[in-house]
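Many introductory courses stop at the sequence. We go one step further.
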Amino acid sequence: MPTKKLDFKTGQYVVYPTQGVGKLVRVEEQTIAGQKIKMIVIDFERNHMTLRIPVDRAELSGLRPVTSVKKMDEAIASAKGKAGAKRMIWARRAAQYEENINSGDPMKLAEVVRDLQRRSASDTMTFSARQLYLRALERMAQEFAVLHKMDVEGASDKIEDILGVPKEVDLNAVEEDDGTAEDSDDEE
């Protein structure tokens, strides 16, 4: 079966499905079991990880260039839609969400974000649902950040703003004193 040759360049951002966005640092030759193999070296700064993939296995591994702005916009638009049916038991849905996250496909990530996002400030999430939501959102935000030249946290906030996800209320927040309170009767 003929495969198309993926053309990656040093310094280019790429997506490895199970890890997210990384930067291609170099292509190097390594000798493994007496054979010289060309390896693509990808740095995932956020995960503090370096990954080496044989060039001839890059396509099979799912390695791909960062998506286009148009496709990212389509994914975000689909995440604005109505949540999918929740007729499966949670364990099966969670496994499906996990599979979608590990696919690296922006549309599948958007599906997870759409289904698990909070619709109002009073909505609550289970711990596992929250973790899946945050992982999917972060993977989307990594590509969004590269496309729009911003940091991942800012990209994540921007995506949630576009989707209209209500901000969480921080129950541990303390109101700061603005210094205009009147002095007590301690001065006499």
